[in-house]
Amino acid sequence: MLKLSSVLVLCCVFAAVPPRAARGAVIRVPASGAHAGLAPAPRAVEAVSASASAAMAPSFFAPSLAPAPLPLTAAAVFAPAPSRASVRLAAQPALADLELPGHRLWDNWGYYDASKRVYHRFALASARELSEAVMDHSSRIHHFTSFDGRRWEDAGAFLSPGFAPQADAVWSGSAYRAPGHGSWRMYVSARRRGLGAAQSLWELKSTPSGRWGRPRLLMDAADPAFRVRAETLGYHLGEDDGIISALRDPFRDGDILYFAAKGVRGDAVRPAVGRARMVRGRVELLPPLFPPIPASWTQIELPQVVVVDGRRLMMMAVSNGGRLLGAPAASRTGQLFFRLADDGTLERLPRGDNLRGLRLPRRSGLYTANQLRDAPDGPLLLSFHTASSKRKPFTLTPPLTLSDLRKQQ
After folding, report:
1. In the Cβ-directed half-sphere of 140, how many Cα atoms lie within 13 Å?
2. CA-derived radius of gyration, the chain
3. What's the CATH architecture for 50-407?
4. Could you tell me if 202 and 218 are in contact, meaning their C-beta atoms sit under 8 angstroms apart?
């Protein structure tokens, strides 16, 4: 009798398990299983057909990135680090562009976790149903992982807008490995609602196991005390010139946090690299740096330190256009390198330096590059295809080496 009961139980269990999906099919997560602002667990997919991509798009994100209007009160979303047993979602072929069906991907950054031998990549993402004109203000941060840096798996949504009153929108960031702790820090930009709204910088900390804590506010351009300190040091926090001015694109190098900013030099407002010293959780704002660029360049993006052949350089994108809604589009964009002197100033690279004049091939439709930190074989740059690209717009490029860029000059 006992044996018969066991057989019946096993039969019931097997009957309840759905048959394995056919290759190319999509395993959907019921919509009722997702809470507002929370992403469902990764879905198991061997491959995704083109016809299935559009149908599955809403299930990639919580409702805040579905075609419906974006609610700005979504909670923060954090995805734990995957294990080798994690299921695969739309794994990309080697050296293929990385795309998320139904969504645009653009500014992206990442790091290599040597302890787990996992590449992590984060990107701004928004539904393709939304207009390009509002995608900067309707995005969230999405997370991808890889064991070889070529084939990527979807780890789900990482951070949603609305996690704080200052964060109606989330923007680009970077990662930083805390020395001696085996943990990581994430630095991201956020923005209040409205064109003239202030921006802020935030820090997230991970544990060695890969769990992320809640964002901590570092700087807020709307804080009166911060504004007084910043303007005393020579920062320009207003956005009256139609250009995004301050507190974005944070990048940490040692105790210094760099960010894209504007500063007052003489009687002119010029693009600048903001700086803050971070020691024991305290943030001390420092005077801005002014890169030696022509007056025609009106903004910089993604200032970050990169080590090339033992040299500490600062890499940034410069352009002569604005990024706010209604501002003129950038007609020229370049990715430039400067020598970071011991006193913190920026110097032009000497003539004949193989990095002087090196930039992303704009003719290929690429725009800006961010770093994948701690890459095992030297600096890796992450970019994306713009609307003018001959490839599918708003998809991510494979990681690029400096040698790759030299070949395309």
Report:
1. 31
2. 22
3. 5 Propeller (2.115)
4. yes
